[in-house]
Design brief:
Layout: E1 2-10, E2 13-20, E3 26-32, E4 51-53, H1 72-76, E5 78-87, E6 90-98, E7 103-112, E8 118-126, E9 132-145, E10 157-163, E11 171-176, E12 192-198, E13 210-215, E14 220-226, E15 232-238, E16 243-249, H2 252-255, E17 259-261, E18 266-268, E19 272-278, H3 281-295, E20 308-310, H4 312-315, H5 321-331, E21 338-341, H6 371-380, E22 384-389, E23 393-395, E24 409-410, E25 413-414, E26 420-422, H7 428-445, E27 449-452, H8 468-489, E28 494-497, H9 507-510, E29 515-517, H10 527-533, E30 543-549, H11 555-564, E31 569-574, H12 581-602, E32 605-611, E33 622-628, E34 632-639, E35 646-650, E36 655-661, E37 668-671, E38 674-678, E39 685-692
Parallel strand pairs: 20-21, 20-31, 21-22, 22-27, 27-28, 28-29, 29-30, 30-31
Antiparallel strand pairs: 1-2, 2-3, 4-9, 5-6, 6-7, 7-8, 8-18, 8-19, 9-16, 9-17, 10-11, 10-13, 12-15, 13-14, 14-19, 15-16, 23-26, 24-25, 32-33, 33-34, 34-39, 35-38, 36-39, 37-38
Length: 700
Amino acid sequence: MTEEIYTAVLGDMEAIYSRSAETGITGLTLLPVTDKKHKDRRAEVRSLAEVKIIGDNYSGDYFGGESMKYSETTLSLKYDSQSVHTDGAVTRIVTRLKSDKGLCVIHTLTHKKGRGYVSVETELVNNTDGDIRVEMLSSFAVCKISPYLEGAGENSMLLHRMRGKWSMEGRLVTETLEDLLLEECWCYGNSKSVRFGQVGSMPVKGYFPFMAVEDTKNNVIWGAQLKCPSSWQMEITRGDDGVCLSGGQADREFGHWIKTVKRGESFKGHVAVLSVCKGSVDSICARLVEAQEDALDVPESEEALPVIFNEYCTTWGNPSHANIEAILDVIDGKGIDYFVIDCGWFKKDGAPWDISMGDYIPSKTLFPHGIGETARLIRSRGMRAGIWFEIETVGRLSDAYNNTDLLLKRDGVTLTTRNRRFWNMTDERVIKYLDERVINFLKENGFSYIKVDYNETIGIGCDDGDSLGEGLRRNMEGAQDYFKRMRAAIPDLVTENCASGGNRLEPSFMALSSMASFSDAHECVEIPLIAANLHRAVLPRQSQIWCVIRENDSKKRIAYSVAAAFLGRMCLSGDVINLTDDKWRVIEDGISFYKKAVPVIKRGFTHIYRENVTSYRHPEGYQALVRENDELILCVIHSFKNAPKEISVKLTADAEVTDTYPRLGENARAENGTLTVSGIEDFVGCGVIMRKKGAHNTKN
């Protein structure tokens, strides 16, 4: 029997807190506000916080090695109190659970009026008689999904996840619960959990910290996103007709994590963002990504979503004052706002850039008058000067590589990969060194944009008094503190988050950045696929898309590359010096179109449509991404091999075409709520801006 403790209506969502009369366990269920009745199903209340302490009994049910949920401590936590606080538009629901031994969990759910998501934070307070060693703590846990289905709801539920690897970030993977073996056995005799996540300091290298479960019969979808820069995990668990979702810091089994919490002290887990709605996976992703909009703290210059030029794909790690001056002479006056000097500016003569980072002394060969003079030249052309650093690692040819007292260790040995070692970001001596080599360098040379790259992962962790996983967690906390330190020292600093392209595209790093490199897919045909994927994970206004132009590219190929940049922030690079005037006109027309599309790139809702796309490297069919706000609709179309000659996309409102790229003329028609683009060939890219009928002009 279940007792309802409290129900909060939070916009178009309900947060329902309930307690089991048999076990005393307190759980949380999120539902859309609807008149649809809940079913009386065989679904137990599961705890809104999962905790495992060393010394606990394990749950049994064959869970060992698969999950650390349902531990002795979790089962001992009983409802103590609940309070609701309203401060202006913000509501906080604080629920306290206690065990007989004095362990306390403080679960805080926060909602801001008008938002389609809630934030959840879980704090563990040790009021026991001694120190405890925690080996699992959830950030969130929600249960009783889906209460609209009869029985187990067979053939009705899907799990959505996002996969990622280098240059193929954000691929959506959808599976049935039956395919995941999350279908109850004949006797409901044991629970089953699918635990997934990422281990190391590249938090989206395998999976993005996201999950969504969809009830396809009732068109309801639940979603969660973690704010975590290090090892994390999520679980979907089933022991009866109900499904439970949970996640947080990667536990001892999955992430080598143990944390000592001393008597009288507390520990907070990572923040999670949760939502539920009626709609599609695009609908739930838009609500989760909305939380990143609220967390934005960027310089004023970022509000216009300026165009970037990054010289990496022009010089390939060999920038110099001479070649930068030549590039500036060509791009001056073409609508470019930021110029970024990428890697290699510090390398010793004859040395590769990717094993030389760490000392950060500008090359006198490449910059004979000092790199500050190059930054001055960039600024004299009306552009903000930017520069590349890989702050947290050192290359094997640098002097810093041998400063082992300041580097991370594992098992007492300096943690070393093929070409890199890692600064200990919790050591004040490291911070002092970086202040001199990074912050003071930026100030003294007039750089107000920093590209922070990160091209290796720490893996399972580093030495710490508690565990390798805790060493990793603390080190990444130190790294993020340094992002904050740079911004405090240079308030108008534009920060680009890069990790071998897109391996840090998670909310806590995005909150510390103006934008992020979307991928290292510099000039591949799959760029529009990756860029569209990332609308489900990060704000398009923060997703910097490579637009690399080659001297031998046809105008058709140039338009394909330029149109891909409409899916986020435009970043030009490549063979721009020797381009003919007619090819430059294709680029300049694209820059002009991009700037008209900025209001809807900046704020909007995204729908992704694809046909016959399976392989990314060798794509077939087409993709149409539609992004809209109250006034404008942007449609970006890319065709691949064996594409149809005509593509039609359903719109949510009647609209009229106001601009196209390239000039499509009568080939782009918006009629009766449908956009049709004809004359399609294989591997073309185009954009269409439409104004909704009856909409009024608004400012960005």
